[in-house]
Amino acid sequence: QVQLVESGGGLVQAGGSLRLSCAASGRTFSSSAMGWFRQAPGKEREFVAAISWSGGSTSYADSVKGRFTISRDDAKRTVNLQMNSLKPEDTAVYYCAAVYSDTSHWYYTAQHEYDYWGQGTQVTVSS
Predict the structure, then answer these.
(1) b/e per residue 12-33 (b: at least 16 CB within 10 A)
(2) H or E stretch including 117?
(3) What is the pLDDT of residues 56-73, one digit of tens each?
(4) What does DSSP say about strands 10-13 and 68-73: parallel, antiparallel, or unpaired?
(5) CA distances from 109 to 34, 60, 90 (A)
(6) Which of 2, 26, 59, 125 could form a disulfide with 116 if both were Cys (CB 3.0 to 4.6 A apart)?
(7) How far apart are the first and last CA of the chain?
(8) Within a 10 A sphere around the Cβ of 112, how many other Cβ atoms?
(9) In the predicted structure, residue 102 carries a pLDDT above the cut 90
């Protein structure tokens, strides 16, 4: 069982930066692949970024590649999403997700592959 709590959302101007954090509790965090997803108003939730439990493999949606960076700190039991050069179209509720993985280098990009979800944090980018 893994519990996830996101933080770091807020209001920022276009071109600015935010750093989201996801604090995890539970025994299997260090063996859990992690992901970030987002849901904009009126749209379906979509994949943003993912990281393997080893931290050695990452994946990004094309829309955020080069601007967002996912990382994890197992000592602090957190996974972070550094968001730079933010655009109004990045406005959404951002969700952290976790899935236990027995393969250290695997990451997951599909929502149905994840077992645990946080409650979400709002990110609003003004133009």
Answers:
(1) beeeeebebbbbbeeebbebbb
(2) strand 116-117
(3) 999 999 999 999 999 999
(4) unpaired
(5) 9, 9, 18
(6) 2
(7) 40
(8) 7
(9) no
